[in-house]
Specification:
Elements: E1 4-7, E2 10-13, E3 18-24, E4 34-39, E5 46-51, E6 57-59, E7 67-72, E8 77-82, E9 91-97, E10 113-114, E11 118-123
């Protein structure tokens, strides 16, 4: 079982920035895809970004050009740098991971492990 703990959420005005972090448990291995998911009010959970063990990144269209995902396997930490935030980015953000040697999924539901989430609220 993998344990994921997010931090860094909060309230910010439109146009602002936030950096989310996710600490992964000691059972973490660097052969997993890691990702960020989000679920806004009245919305289904969606994949925001993912990063493969080799560092290949993938973003949802809504995140491209504004969000940057990165990982530090030595620190067992995943990051999401978010800029140019707008009210539509308001959501609970979740850290997620796959099983070992699994390709990065495009669907949020295909991540095996998901953290408890950190709230991001963007005001206009």
């Amino acid at each position: 079982q993998l344990h994921l703990v997010e931090s860094g959420g909060g309230s910010v005005q439109a146009g602002g920035s936030l950096k989310l972090s996710c600490s992964v448990s000691t059972r973490f291995t660097s052969d997993r895809c890691l990702g960020w998911l989000r679920q806004g009010p009245m919305n289904e959970r969606e994949r925001v970004a993912s990063i493969s063990p080799s560092g290949i990144t993938s973003y949802a269209d809504s995140a491209k050009g504004r969000f940057t995902v990165s990982r530090d396997d030595a620190r067992k930490t995943l990051y999401l740098q978010m800029s140019s935030l707008n009210p539509e980015d308001t959501a609970m953000y979740y850290c997620a991971a796959t099983e070992s040697f699994t390709a990065c999924p495009l669907r949020a539901s295909d991540f095996t492990y998901v953290g408890q989430g950190t709230q991001v609220t963007v005001s206009s």
